[in-house]
Write a structure and sequence with these properties.
- By secondary structure, this protein is an alpha/beta fold.
- The protein has 2 domains: 180 residues, FAD/NAD(P)-binding domain; 212 residues, Polyamine Oxidase, Chain A, domain 2 (Alpha-Beta Complex).
- The strands form 5 sheets. Strands 1, 2, 9, 10, 11, 12 and 20 form a 7-stranded mixed β-sheet that branches.
- Helix 3 runs antiparallel to helix 7.
- The radius of gyration is 24 Å and the shape is globular.
- The N terminus is likely disordered.
Length: 456
């Protein structure tokens, strides 16, 4: 006869009762997007012991690379273009990935009223466009101190708090307005946006890139490959699928508690580099001071989505850009689509959507499908296949902005003053702009020298 065991049951093993792995580093980086991954790679190349804590299963942040199962080809539909800067060419060169001129990708484009599906023929007045870009460039050149960081002139120029629509009227920049709409996607209602943010994001470098057709793209059409090589070089110093749950910043160190599905970490670092957006939701884990909470709590976000859609039924190798001929300056309203980009793969398109408020995924997808069907009708395309989403990504919050009153009251002086406090440094789109080339440049020349100096 068997005997019933009187031994107590063994506890179920969960991450909460796993003993924390203790790790020590010079620098801990929160977030492995463009700026965080770049910073970590460069720090390690300088002989600094660094760890990256990233909640996703990969590095790269806003990078999205689609892998076509039929052709085995790839297409970048997140981050796409780069400026021809030394930090860009050096970083790609270090990982042996080629860069080519953006025009080499080819393809045609059409402007379409996405609300009706009607093709709107446009005749480009090259002279007017050039005058518009150069005219805007002259205005940007007045404010070189905001080109890299938030060094706002005193007193705050009146133009900074004008709505962009009024700024355009005041300076006769109507021929530039639609260019701003197409190149500054993700800024919400751009005509209602404070001009400071357009001057800051559509900066002198972007004017130069557009005027000189100087943009570069990854020659492999696989930006994820770059970050995969960064990860391989960093090795075990990348903690993927890992979230910080608590951060205590002391006079001489930073203590980080983090966990993934199967492990816990107790990390001690000399310095902390935060590359995630500084919002209450994204920074719920650090020991924020009342001043930090008050500053970060003032941000408002805009919303941006990209996707890959199969069975579009639209002609290949053609990008469709939204235009609203009845609207002021022909700029479409948000929420809505900016473009439906062509890809190298038949029937596969890459739509881009924006909004000034958060929307359910179902609503964004429904508008994409409806727009594709309206465009089919406008082009007399008789296919009736139902579009299918292969990928859908939310890049939100995309731009973080504050009110005009906050701008006038010195908000950005207060924000910049946080750099280096409590052994904490910041990089990322909020501190510069959400564009990879600019983020790498900012991180390389504004953040890393100061961080390295403190480690000596």
């Amino acid at each position: 006869m068997s005997r019933l065991s009187t031994d107590p049951p063994k506890p179920h093993t969960t991450v909460d009762n796993v003993e924390a792995q203790e790790l020590t580093y010079d620098v801990a980086v929160i977030g492995g997007g463009a700026s965080g991954a770049y910073a970590a790679a460069r720090l390690q190349q300088e002989g600094i012991k660094v760890v990256v804590i990233e909640q996703e299963d990969r590095l790269g942040g806003h990078v999205n690379t689609y892998h076509d199962p039929t052709s085995n080809g790839t297409y970048d539909h997140g981050v796409q273009v780069f400026s021809n800067l030394s930090v860009v060419t050096d970083f790609f060169g270090h990982y042996d990935i080629p860069l080519v001129a953006a025009g080499a990708l080819g393809g045609s484009s059409q402007t379409v009223d996405f609300a009706s599906g009607t093709v709107i023929p446009t005749v480009q007045n090259v002279t007017a466009l050039a005058q518009g870009i150069l005219g805007y460039g002259a205005e940007v050149a007045k404010y070189p101190t905001i080109n890299t960081k938030w060094d706002i002139p005193k007193p705050v120029p009146e133009d900074f708090t004008l709505q962009l629509g009024d700024f355009i009227t005041n300076y006769g920049l109507q021929s530039w307005a639609y260019i701003a709409y197409t190149y500054q996607q993700g800024l919400g209602n751009i005509l209602a946006q404070s001009t400071l943010y357009v001057l800051r994001y559509f900066d002198a470098q972007q004017v130069q890139d557009i005027a000189g057709q100087a943009f570069l793209v990854n020659g492999l059409q696989n930006n994820q490959a770059l970050y995969d090589r960064v990860q391989a070089e960093l090795g075990d110093n990348v903690l993927l699928n890992t979230k910080p749950t608590k951060i205590e910043r002391k006079d001489d160190s930073v203590k980080i508690t983090a966990k993934c599905s199967h492990n816990k970490y107790q990390i001690t670092a000399k310095k902390l580099l935060v590359s995630t957006p500084p919002t209450a939701e994204k920074l719920s884990f650090p020991d924020l001071s009342p001043d930090e909470k008050a500053i970060f709590g003032q941000f408002n976000g805009s919303y941006y989505w990209n996707s890959i859609v199969l069975n579009s039924g639209l002609p290949g190798n053609t990008t469709y850009t939204n235009i609203a001929p009845e609207n002021p300056l022909a700029i479409p309203a948000v929420p809505g689509l900016y473009t439906i980009n062509a890809t190298p793969f038949p029937g596969v398109t890459a739509p881009l959507n924006g909004s000034d408020r958060d929307l359910p995924e179902t609503q964004v997808k429904a508008e994409i499908v409806a727009a594709i069907k309206r465009i089919r009708k406008g082009l007399n395309i008789t296919v009736d296949t139902e579009p299918v989403f292969a990928e859908f990504n939310a890049h939100s919050p995309f731009h973080l902005t504050v009110s005009n009153d906050a701008i006038k009251s010195g908000f950005y002086d207060d924000l910049e003053a946080l750099q280096g406090q409590k052994n904490t440094w910041y990089t990322g789109g909020t501190w510069n702009k959400p564009a990879t080339s600019a983020l790498w440049n900012f991180t390389e020349y504004e953040i890393l020298p100061k961080l390295l100096a403190e480690l000596k």
